[in-house]
Task: structure prediction
Amino acid sequence: MQSSIAYRYLYILTSSTLSVLPTKPSKGPRSAIGNASRRCFQNKVNNKSSFLTLKLSKQSNNRTQRLIGNMAMISLGLDTKELAHQYEAVSEAQYQAGLSLLKKLEITAGQRVLDVGAGTGRLASYAASLVGQDGRVIGIDPLEDRINVARSKNQPNLSFDVGDAQDLSQFDSASFDVAYLNCVLHWLPDQLGALNQIARVLKPGGRLGILGGSGDRPPVFETIKKHVLSHERYRDYPESTGNVANFPTQHELESLLQAAGLCGTASFTERSIITMQDAESMLGWLDASTFGNYVGHLPKNLCDTARNELGKEFEQLRTDRGVEMEMVWLGAVAIQV
Ligand SMILES: C[S@@+](CC[C@H](N)C(=O)[O-])C[C@H]1O[C@@H](n2cnc3c(N)ncnc32)[C@H](O)[C@@H]1O
Result:
């Protein structure tokens, strides 16, 4: 059923905005990052960044407070072997989005790359083809079943370990040329903590790429879930109305990257259409993508009721191509100076 999902991926809009210390209008991602990086470095030298850092720390503290409330809501215990294999089969949306992120990161032969939250390793496997035999890609993910699927890829320059974005102590400082989080940041209870860790393991000049849902334009499946689970019968389950997946806004993402000491942030948005053959397939994609967190926190009987109600809402989005949802991706590339 899942493998026959009709999937269409369209880039309808791509915009790059230079969001930190803009100089001249950018000619493209490379020049945008280069200009911003130079200015950022200059500011560091001139010690002008302290005001910005102060402002951001305050925002980050507020944000951290908000995120602490989320910690209890996200479960890494709802994943199964089946969901892991299902993710490998249905994660075309995340994979295609990830390919566009890797393109912006301009990965070259011989580089050392860290894929944080690698899942079943599809994107890491592609990254390994970019770095070639003299390079190395390491993927980490806290879910053992996903790491087991990833390990079956068996490429000599690619390895996977169970690990957490918020604790990268197994890696030396300044040991990676590139690190990226594809569809991962919104799951992290301590987003700034993770970015600080990644900044530490990046070499000077190393690049961090991030791509995921946008808090400015939350995914339709999240809005529908909030609406359905706001009904009285789900109220005893706080995850029903809580913000389990914490998608940052563009402003928040840029602030986080700056607070982590990264420079030259070029943030961008992309839009795609996710098409599944029916509501059941859409629910399957969501179960696998959220490692069981979409409605898995509900007791069995309520879970079935919720899936029924969600399915009816999804069917409202049926076109002649299938059930379709717009997805606005928010991304950024930043540099360790
Ligand atoms: C939607 S999947 C994305 C997987 C992969 N990056 C991709 O592009 O297909 C989200 C991943 O985030 C991982 N994740 C959740 N919490 C994490 C954490 N604290 N540290 C690292 N990864 C985490 C999940 O285990 C899951 O594999």
